[in-house]
Amino acid sequence: MKLTTMTQVTVDGVMQGNGAASDEDRRNGFERGGWALGAGDDETRTLITQTYQRAEAFLFGRRTYELFAGSWRSVDQMRAHPIGVALNEAPKYVASTTLTAPRWADTTVLGGDLATTIADLKAKPGGELQVHGSGSLTRWLLENDLVDEMTLIVVPVILGQGARLLPDAGPDLALDLVESRVDAKGVTIQVFRPAGRPHYATA
């Protein structure tokens, strides 16, 4: 399977609290949640839905898993949505050392040597092993060269606070841009593939 990530971020790289509820994630004093509500046109919403629908399986960090389980698994209207159907029908994997009793059907908690376990999952035949949200997990996957394709949905807003997808300091990575579009509301969708280390100018 190909491991792909899809992340909504602001222009300043914040991914925290993008959901519809402003109090969804108030870690570290964050109070500007709900910034992605209403963002994107119909084509972008269709693209996101179709992405979920083509998943062979999903991989989550614990926090995102529990957030999704509390909505896509539990709310009837969300379960009936094509994204909810895709999530409920596909296998789900959670990278966590603290989750002991997953409450969503067809969930496997991954422990032990996570890099080897995920590499083994990727070696299975099939389509995409998708990661949505899960910022800490996405950063770890990038650091361990496990991401095959990365989609960033950039919402035209600057928050000035909140957890960012990428840290201020970390490993460097070159990216090949394989697809890019801008929708009618100014949301950009960029698809990248990791391409080794960047090349730097020399004196």
Number of helices: 6
Query: What's the CATH first level of the domain at 1-13 and 39-160?
Result: Alpha Beta
Structural class, by secondary structure, is alpha/beta
Known CATH architecture of the domain at 1-13 and 39-160? 3-Layer(aba) Sandwich
* Biggest sheet: strand arrangement: 4-3-2-5-1-6-8-7
Question: What is the CA-atom radius of gyration, in angstroms?
Answer: 17 Å
On the 0-100 scale, what is the average pLDDT? 91
Q: Fraction of residues in helices? A: 25-40%
The biggest beta sheet reads:
8 strands, mixed
| Poorly predicted sequence stretches spanning 5 or more consecutive residues | none
* Number of beta-strand segments: 8
Shape, per Cα inertia axes = globular
Binned strand content: 25-35%
SSE order in H/E notation?
EHEHHHEEHEHEEE
Describe the structure.
The relative contact order is 0.24. Helix 1 runs parallel beside helix 4. Helix content is 26%, strand content 25%. It starts with a strand and ends in a 9-residue tail after the last strand. The radius of gyration is 17 Å and the shape is globular. It is built from six helices and eight strands, in the order βαβαααββαβαβββ. The chain has an eight-stranded mixed sheet, sandwiched between helices.
